[in-house]
Design goal:
Radius of gyration: 22 Å
Number of strands: 9
Distance between the termini: 37 Å
Structural class: alpha/beta
Shape: globular
Mean pLDDT: 82
Number of helices: 14
Low-confidence stretches: 1-61, 78-94
Amino acid sequence: MEFRGERTGANTRDVGLSNAQNLADCLRAHARTGGRAARTARRRGYERVGAVINVEHGALSAFEQHVLASTELCIQQLRGFGHMGAHDVGVGEIHLADLINRIRFKIVDLGKNLVLQELEANGIPFAFDAVIGRGGLVKPIPGGVYAVNEAMKQDTLHAMRTHACNLGGLIAAELAASLPDCPAFIADPGVVDELEDVARISGSPLMPKITIWHALNQKAIARRFAKEQGTKYEELDLIICHLGGGISIAVHQHGKAIDANNALDGEGPFSPERAGTLPAGQLIDICYSGQFTKDELKKRISGRAGLTAHLGTTDVPAIIKAIEEGDKKAELILDAMIYNVAKAIGGAATVLYGKVDAILLTGGIAYSDYIISRLKKRISFLAPIHVYPGEGEMESLAFNALGALRGELPVQIYK
């Protein structure tokens, strides 16, 4: 049976089912790590924006469970179409691209309803001046605050890469649409692209460099550091390393990230669940070995790579415990990750000709004294090091929403 989709020359059933399965796998992985710990929001100026931050944390666990159950059901429905014969369904009557979008809309609707339920449970009126969500993997754009418009929603629905962040702007738009004169924003999504032209060139014109990184958290930490130093982010030259399930390293020059790696599925040091840079020749050989499908190989790059490929877990504290108990393989692999991170930070210093005001280390792994102490030994000669464990993404979203409402930050138009 032929299934017609939006892209020519592709088996739409394979593409659609893969996208849905990848979304489920992504959500499973996020649920396994427990998501982010709930934090008390700081209410600054517009108190109702702070309330949204609390809701996002409070509803996270229930949201993950509802989303996962809904996605699994839709995937089973999609698989069922593969067993139908031509006599059951006419060619062209079913468009799997539409079915995939129904999954996404269902998840967005679940997210909206859970936020509303959480507000009601906490006695918070559904009345806000703005709603802001994490931006998705849309087109490369400069950093800043963006209004969620129809072009952004369409690009998010058809994003070429699957990640839970693709839901943020869509849920924000649904919530804002229920309120009078309430804008929906995103800020500093993972596709922020402020690279210098020279940083875009790879060794093959077929593969120009792209960047997917922890832009929201990195820029939030940069502003926080600048404030602590009595200066502005736009006046500093920084190297910032986010240590999490993926590891991103960016060079920030006077308020712009002029170099950053593709921390999702491209390059850089390997991390708890991503492979980072791989030997190109060996990768091509594996692709044509017949041992793996395309989707299986993608998981070997992002999701089931890095520490989990070597050691069977992404749990850094458990790995460190094993090392303390004498596990030499665990020690070698974790030290190799630290070595690769240090080497990438050292390389980043050359972008600034060695004139680095500070190196900032952030992300969940920055809580680990084992890792931070060993990393500092390798990079401390480059610049002063400051550690900001965890993530400041919710606070950064609030900062950006308030700045947009007060006219302090321009609201950019996504095209």
